[in-house]
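Researcher: Next sequence.
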Amino acid sequence: MGMPKHSNSLVPLLTLVLIWLGSVRAWSQVSVLTQHNDIRRTGANLNESTLTTSNVNAGQFGKLFSRSVDGQIYAQPLYVPNVNIPGQGTHNVVYVATMKNTVYAFDADDPNASAPYWQANFGPGVPWQETGCTVSDIDDVVGITATPVIDLSSATLYFVAKTKENGSYFQRLHALDITTGQARIGSPVTIQATIPGTGDGSNNGQLSFSPQMQLNRSGLLLLNGYVYIAFGSHCDAFPYHGWVFSYNAVTLQQMAVYNTTPNDGMSGIWMGGNGLVADA
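Model: Next structure:
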């Protein structure tokens, strides 16, 4: 299930750490499309051919440049090589999502390319004090907390944004074109469900998903044409459950809903910020 509280966050600054080999920059050409590289969450790059125990050292390996963003980064940045940006050519791109619901597409190679190729904001985040937490390591608001996932075949980035709009709370699944930041057809969709149950937060035998109290901390999973999203709690604040939603990756139609404790509670799925896991 993972840890109930947030992992330590990064300050609102993205630092790119790459390697110099002599006078040649050796940029990785292996895509990082999901949390910890693969759906088993191994974190391994089995195609690594440049980095060794001899060239990864204080003299050759380290910070090259940094980028400022608008809020804390809880989601793992993702990387796609050879992205064709309309009107700007082909580039290696790092995708960054913040707790203020902003997504950035930064050049991964050029220290002088401080401006993103595109950036987009997806609404005001939820003040952490309104999630039931009494103390928090979140500085300001809760927005995009989980690591997104990228479908390379359709050049689409999926993520969940948590917002407060006109006094109401929402969690929405978004699908963006990684080349432009524009929404795909049908995006976004509001994440919602009501099931039979008498558990914490139920009403007259019905249990509804709470966009205010539930937290999408687990990284998203893309598997066999479906996007899977899991939810836990904020600081164990009641009421909460473990929820898993499945959406068609093309139409964004909700396909399935699973609740861990429809007649009970205290069963969030956090994964400690890691992604949902799948095997063959």
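Model: The CA atoms of residues 12 and 137 lie 13 Å apart. The two ends are 21 Å apart (CA to CA).
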